[in-house]
Target: Matrixin family metalloprotease
Amino acid sequence: MKKIVVLAFILLLGCQKKRITNDTIVGIQAYKGFPKAKTDSLAKTIASFYTIKTIILPEIDLPKSAFIQVKSARYRADSIINIQKKQKKDTIDYILGLTHKDISTTKKDKSGKTKEPSYKYEDWGIMGLAYCPGNSCIISSFRLQHKDEDLYFLRIKKVTIHELGHNLGLPHCPNKKCVMTDAVESIATIDNASLALCSLCKQKIQ
Model:
């Protein structure tokens, strides 16, 4: 099987801890084609993991304006989270999108320039994208697939918890077992991490 190299990419906009309470609400926005059973399970996982409330929003189509066809047919993750942010109702605090379609963004270096080679990173396939901190993120199951269904879904859970963690203000963690570790372009990093926060990240979020 051909190995897929991936990156759990985020927008780092000066990560700082955001205050969350038991009344904090995350709206789960499943896009058409994402399995309802997985949406329901992820909503419960999020609620339990962060001790917050989740509500499942009506299923909708991915925004047509986010569709591109540069390397392949897929959707720009940065466009999706921006649209979600603008359309988020005041009754919810965060909005988390779920899709089975491929998503991408432009991977940049520390100076803000597109990484080299630019042809590779201008439209870079990713598993998730989030504002850090912010109120909008998107997760794609496209690059997480595996013949083992349990492993496949565990990967989705980890990326979901990871991206929402960025919304809540958690930066990447140097602890490779922490769910907030940087995938560094390898899905093996995700498989190696636990579905748990390290003690340092727990302190930051509490």
Q: What stands out?
A: The domain at 11-205 is CATH 3.40.390.10 (Collagenase (Catalytic Domain)).
